[in-house]
Structures are given as structure tokens and as C-alpha cells.
Specification:
The protein is α+β, with helices and mostly antiparallel strands. The protein has eleven helices and 14 strands.
């Protein structure tokens, strides 16, 4: 199919998706039907774009790589999945593998692919919020009806029935650790908000209330004290916000954000950071944040642990490829047996991030010879 024909075909899938989801839901007495139009590319990020029967719209917040969640697992396996009872078949500690369950409070579901020849085009999830058995007959009928509504074909294999821990159904270890790190970060932020900011605001509130009991001549000093306290609160909130999402990335763009990152690291650690950063043009928010975070991690590792006098950061775009390189002249290490420092997520975490956008990460290091971290990814338009 020519490129223009491909685009027209994808548009036709989007045009019928919402109505098809509602038709499937009504036809089979379901509580929720989600639809994902699978984007082109070797490692696309998957989303549920349409949801019939959604109570919150939270399904649209799910973004998953291949192999993760009911959506990513169906894409990877290219066949359906059945969970007849979330409570019985998925251990509590493994619910994080299926974010759609939490987003839509699902109790049972069938998720399956629809094909155009050997090409996976659409993934659906058909679910209830009460326990329901999806037997072989009902699974076949749902898949055939959905295929007709999208003018596609069901896959030729019966769906897999999920029972707790099964080979091929788990996150990679590094993804699990990344998710745990995210939860740890959320707890840290919650503590900062409760124990730090809320207490600072409370003290400022008390100082302002005291104005009602103070002589008027003491008001200026009390107002100054409260104002100073609130300035500290603002600074504290800004620090948390910068840690969550670099403001420069949204306000000034990728190049300015990387320049600011290099300058901050240079000042904080006293290591010379030389940079040559070309403007790659619009990449899309997913690629930009992955590139920024990998640069941040590599640069932080080099400044903290390598003992380097100089770190060189370069970003080069050309021939449809984007290359980020962070190299230092430090002590180096054995990349096959790195010592875990900090969160222990450094190298594996960077590789995992690179894979989310179809990129690759190379570590060129040896003891006593410094280290170079190279990220390569395809150039692409804004997403």
C-alpha cells in the first residue's frame, strides 16, 4: 500500500473507532470497550485512543511500550489475552502490569488484535466491572464482530488465558525498578509537600494571624517575616517542579534546556562541561524528554562518579538520525560489571528509556579510559 493510501486507511480506522467501540459494548453487554489504533514504527508507544463506557477518561492517560500492559502484551504476542477474574487470576502485586484495570476498575476482560494481512492494525479490550467468564464461543464472536466493524481480520489463534505469573507476561526487571523508583519519588514529593511546604505555609498563616493582636507599629516586621516565609514556599515549590519537569524544555525548547542543564551541572560539580548542541528541529514531546533525561543521567554520572576534569556533550542531527553523546575523561569502568551507585538505575534505565522511542544506547567505557554514552534515534516530527 502506498504511503498516501496508508494514511487514508489509518484515517478510516480512526473515523469508525468510536462508533465501533460503542457497538461492540452494546452488542455483548460490556461495561467498557477500549480501542487502540497501532501506530507505525518498530517500537511505537501505545495508547487507548477511544473508550466506550469509560467512567473517568483515565484510559487516555495510559502510554505503553511493546510488551507492557494488556495493550502492549497483545501487540507483542499478536494474539488475544483473557482474564476471567482480575481478583483471582492476577496477584495484587502484579496489578501494576495492567494499568487499564486500575484506570477503569475492570473485573474481567478480553483483549485482542485485529489484523490487515500479517500487519497488526487495531487492539481492543472488551471488559466488565463484574466477574464474567469469556468462554471460547464468546471470545470468537466478539473478535469476529469487531473485525467486521473495522473491516479487518481477527488473528488466527485463540486468546491466552492469564493465570498469575506466566512466562512472557512480566515487565522487564529494569522496568519494574523504574516503576518502583517512580513510586519512591511520589512518596518523597508527598513528604515534601506535607512535612515541608504545608508546615511553611502554616507558619506564614500564624504570622499573618498575629497581626490582629499586634500593635500597628509592629505590623511591618510581622508582614516582612510572613513574606519571607512565603518566598521560601515559592522557592520550595519551584524546586519540586523543576525536578519533575524542566521548565526550560517547555518554555525555551530542547537546545536551551540542554544548555541550561550543562551550565547547572558545571556550576554544581566544578567539572568543565563543553558542549556542541545542534538544533534538531521538532522531535515530539516523548523523544525530547527521553533525550533530555538520558543526557541528564549520563552527565550527572560523569560529574559525580568519574573523577573527570572535562565532560563533552554533543548533539548532532543529520541523514534522518539524531546522535547524543556524553563523554568524559575520567576513570572509566567495566560496562559489563558496573558498580551500582545512586538509584542503581543508571545504565539500564537509560537503555530502557531509549527503547521507548525506538532508539539505541551504547556505552563505550574501560577502566582508566573514561566513558562515552551515545544515544541514537530516528528524527521525527512533533507528536
Amino acid at each position: 500500500m502506498a504511503e498516501s493510501g496508508q494514511r487514508a486507511f489509518i484515517r478510516s480506522l480512526h473515523a469508525c473507532a468510536a462508533r465501533a467501540a460503542e457497538d461492540v459494548r452494546e452488542r455483548f453487554g460490556l461495561d467498557f470497550v477500549g480501542v487502540s489504533i497501532v501506530p507505525d514504527g518498530s517500537a511505537p508507544i501505545l495508547t487507548w485512543q477511544y473508550g466506550a463506557g469509560s467512567t473517568t477518561g483515565n484510559y487516555a492517560l495510559i502510554h505503553l511500550p511493546e510488551g507492557v500492559g494488556a495493550l502492549g502484551k497483545v501487540q507483542k504476542l499478536r494474539r488475544g489475552l483473557v482474564v476471567n477474574s482480575v481478583e483471582d487470576d492476577i496477584p495484587q502485586g502484579e496489578l501494576f502490569q495492567y494499568p487499564i484495570i486500575v484506570a477503569e476498575a475492570l473485573a474481567s476482560f478480553l483483549s485482542f488484535p485485529l489484523m490487515e494481512g500479517d500487519r497488526l492494525r487495531v487492539i481492543l479490550i472488551c471488559a466488565t466491572r463484574f466477574v464474567r467468564t469469556f468462554d471460547e464461543v464468546s471470545c470468537g464472536l466478539m473478535q469476529q464482530y469487531a473485525a467486521e466493524r473495522f473491516s479487518l481480520m481477527p488473528c488466527g489463534e485463540p486468546p491466552l488465558e492469564v493465570h498469575g505469573k506466566q512466562e512472557g507476561f512480566a515487565y522487564t526487571e529494569i522496568t519494574h525498578r523504574l516503576l518502583q523508583a517512580q513510586e519512591d519519588e511520589r512518596r518523597r514529593i508527598a513528604r515534601e509537600l506535607h512535612d515541608g511546604i504545608s508546615q511553611e505555609v502554616l507558619v506564614a498563616q500564624i504570622e499573618l494571624r498575629k497581626l490582629g493582636y499586634l500593635p500597628q507599629e509592629e505590623w511591618p516586621a510581622a508582614v516582612d517575616a510572613a513574606s519571607g516565609r512565603l518566598k521560601d514556599v515559592i522557592a520550595h515549590i519551584s524546586a519540586i517542579a523543576r525536578a519533575l519537569r524542566p521548565a526550560a524544555l517547555d518554555e525555551l525548547g530542547l537546545v536551551a534546556a540542554l544548555e541550561a542543564l550543562c551550565a547547572t551541572m558545571e556550576k554544581a560539580f566544578g567539572v568543565r562541561v563543553t558542549r556542541s548542541i545542534a538544533d534538531p528541529g521538532p522531535l515530539g514531546s516523548d523523544k525530547e524528554i527521553v533525550l533530555y533525561r538520558i543526557c541528564q543521567e549520563a552527565l550527572s554520572n560523569a560529574c559525580k562518579y568519574s573523577g573527570a576534569d572535562e565532560v563533552r556533550v554533543s548533539l548532532v542531527a543529520g541523514e534522518g538520525r539524531l546522535i547524543l553523546r556524553v563523554a568524559d575523561d575520567g576513570t572509566g569502568f567495566d560496562p559489563h560489571r558496573p558498580q551500582a551507585k545512586g538509584s542503581g538505575l543508571g545504565l539500564g534505565g537509560m537503555r530502557e528509556r531509549a527503547g521507548l522511542v525506538g532508539g539505541s544506547l551504547e556505552i563505550d567505557a574501560a577502566s582508566g579510559e573514561g566513558c562515552a554514552v551515545t544515544l541514537a534515534m530516528a528524527l521525527g516530527g512533533a507528536q
